[in-house]
C-alpha cells in the first residue's frame, strides 16, 4: 500500500503500495476498497514524490529481501514471472524486477498505476519487464489475458483487505501449478491490542494486524499447501513509534 504519512500518518515500514486490488467485502457496511481507491487516486502523486527518499526505498528493500532470504529458490531472473498485487506506484516492483524475468503490477488505483508505468518507462524498462494494470481481480477466466504467475507478491496490503480469505482465493487462481503466494505484513500482538490508529480505521479493517491462525485459515481455504510463516523484522509504527513485528508467509498451489 502507498504510504499514508503526511496525509494520514499511517503505519511503520509498511505502506509501499497503492490501494488493494481486491474489492470484495464491505466490513460492517463500509466499503474499504472504495475508500482505499479514492484515497490513493487522490494522493498518488504526493506518495510518489515521498517514495523517492531513502527511507521509503529502504522499506521496500527490506520486504523484498526478507522474501528472497526465506525462499531464494523462487527468484530466477531468467524465468520467474511475478505479480505485484496492490502494487501502488511500484516501490516493491522496482526492487523485485532485479530478481525476476518480469513483473506485472495490479492495483485498483488508476492514478497509482499511471505513475508506476511512467516511472518504469523512465527507468528504461520495457513493458515486458515491468508494467502495471488497473483492475479489480475476481478470479474469473480471462482476467489479465489468462496470464499465470510463478510467484505473486503482496507486501503491506493484506491488512487493508476486508476478507483475506476471499483475496487469497482470488490470488491463488492466478498461480501456475507449483507457483507460490508470498505475503509480507504486520503480525498481531499477543495482547490483541489495536496497532493502527483510529484515523486509519476507514482504510484498515484489520486494525489489530494479522494473526498466524487467520493467515493460515485463509491460505488453507484457498487450497494452498506448504504453509510457511516466519517473523522477519521489527519496525516502528508511525506516528506512535511502537515497534511492530513483520512476517512473511508462503503458500503453494499444488496444481
UniProtKB/TrEMBL annotation:
Annotated keywords: Methyltransferase, Transferase
CDD domains attached to this UniProt entry: AdoMet_MTases
SUPFAM superfamilies noted in UniProt: S-adenosyl-L-methionine-dependent methyltransferases
Record's compositionally biased regions (Basic and acidic residues): 1-17
Gene3D superfamilies, A to Z: Vaccinia Virus protein VP39 (3.40.50.150)
An annotated Gene Ontology molecular function: methyltransferase activity
Pfam families xrefs: Methyltransf_23 (PF13489)
Stretch list, region Disordered: 1-28
An individual GO BP term: methylation
Methyltransferase keyword on record: yes
Keyword Methyltransferase: yes
PANTHER family: PUTATIVE (AFU_ORTHOLOGUE AFUA_2G14390)-RELATED (PTHR43861:SF3), TRANS-ACONITATE 2-METHYLTRANSFERASE-RELATED (PTHR43861)
Official protein name in the record: S-adenosyl-L-methionine-dependent methyltransferase
Taxonomic source organism: Lentinus brumalis
Source taxonomy: Eukaryota, Fungi, Dikarya, Basidiomycota, Agaricomycotina
Amino acid at each position: 500500500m502507498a504510504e499514508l504519512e503526511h496525509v494520514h500518518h499511517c503505519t511503520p515500514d509498511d505502506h509501499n503500495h497503492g490501494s488493494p486490488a481486491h474489492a470484495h467485502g464491505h466490513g460492517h457496511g463500509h466499503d474499504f476498497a472504495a475508500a482505499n481507491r479514492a484515497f490513493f487516486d487522490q494522493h498518488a502523486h504526493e506518495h510518489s514524490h515521498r517514495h523517492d527518499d531513502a527511507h521509503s526505498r529502504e522499506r521496500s528493500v527490506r520486504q523484498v529481501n526478507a522474501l528472497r532470504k526465506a525462499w531464494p529458490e523462487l527468484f530466477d531472473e531468467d524465468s520467474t514471472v511475478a505479480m505485484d498485487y496492490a502494487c501502488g506506484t511500484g516501490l516493491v516492483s522496482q526492487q523485485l524486477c532485479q530478481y525476476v524475468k518480469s513483473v506485472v503490477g495490479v492495483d485498483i488505483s488508476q492514478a497509482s498505476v499511471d505513475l508506476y508505468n511512467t516511472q518504469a518507462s523512465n527507468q528504461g524498462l520495457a513493458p515486458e519487464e515491468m508494467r502495471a494494470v488497473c483492475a479489480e481481480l475476481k478470479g474469473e477466466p480471462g482476467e489479465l489475458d489468462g496470464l499465470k504467475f510463478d510467484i505473486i507478491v503482496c507486501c503491506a496490503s493484506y491488512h487493508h483487505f476486508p476478507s483475506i480469505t476471499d483475496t487469497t482465493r482470488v490470488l491463488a487462481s492466478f498461480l501456475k501449478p507449483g507457483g507460490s503466494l508470498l505475503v509480507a505484513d504486520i503480525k498481531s500482538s499477543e495482547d490483541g491490542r489495536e496497532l493502527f490508529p483510529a484515523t486509519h480505521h476507514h482504510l484498515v479493517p484489520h486494525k489489530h494486524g494479522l494473526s498466524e491462525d487467520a493467515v493460515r485459515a485463509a491460505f488453507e481455504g484457498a487450497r494452498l499447501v506448504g504453509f510457511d510463516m516466519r517473523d522477519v523484522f521489527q519496525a516502528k509504527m508511525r506516528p506512535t513509534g511502537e515497534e511492530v513485528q513483520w512476517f512473511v508467509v508462503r503458500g503453494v498451489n499444488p496444481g
